[in-house]
Amino acid sequence: MTGDEPLARRAQAEVGEKLPELKLEGTPTFIVSTALATRDFQDVHHDRDLAQAKGSKDIFVNILTDTGLVERFVTDWAGPSARVKSISLRLGVPWYAYDTTVFTGSVTSVEDGLVEVDVVGNNSLGAHVTAKVKLTIGESQ
């Protein structure tokens, strides 16, 4: 996915189905703007010098941005009728400025209209975020 494709209207999902990968560059502008958009004013998300003084390599993406990106990744695949019921995620390695994270996912369960998708976002350091998303799609609202 590049973000330019039209949203598909999906009516169902199958266990084992793979989601199209989403590749995102962590530019400083992206990291700073998403931190501010989520009202996260911690200096490690917008001030390289202070982030490095606190032991980080550079500024890094915040968890609120990660949650939004996981939701975007799944709903772009599921289509406009999708309704996210829950997202649980765990952070791994940081996503520093100038690194790229690639989101992948697969359907792990479809039961009583509830679809479960496992998502992983990997960057050059390893697994940045792992998540489990539960959603309904199509007419199973």
Can you walk me through this structure?
By secondary structure, the protein is α+β, with helices and mostly antiparallel strands. It has a single domain, classed as Hotdog Thioesterase (Thiol Ester Dehydrase, Chain A). The chain has three helices and five strands. It has helices spanning 28-37, 48-53, 63-78; strands at residues 18-25, 83-91, 100-111, 114-123, 126-136. It has a five-stranded antiparallel β-sheet with strand order 1-3-4-5-2, with helices on one face. The model has no long low-confidence stretch (mean pLDDT 90).
Could you give a short description of this structure?
This protein is of the alpha+beta class.
Estimated helix fraction? 10-25%
Number of discrete helical segments: 3
Distance linking N and C termini: 25 Å
Task: Give the CA-based shape.
Answer: elongated
CATH topology: Thiol Ester Dehydrase, Chain A
Q: Tell me the Rg in angstroms.
A: 16 Å
The main pleated sheet reads as: 5 strands, antiparallel
Task: List the helices and strands in order.
Answer: EHHHEEEE
Count of the separate structural domains: 1
SS-based structural class?
Answer: alpha+beta
Q: What would CATH call the architecture? A: Roll
Task: Name the CATH class.
Answer: Alpha Beta
Instruction: Give the strand order of the largest sheet, numbering strands 1, 2, ... along the chain.
Output: 1-3-4-5-2
- State the low-pLDDT regions, or none: none
User: In total, how many beta strands?
Assistant: 5
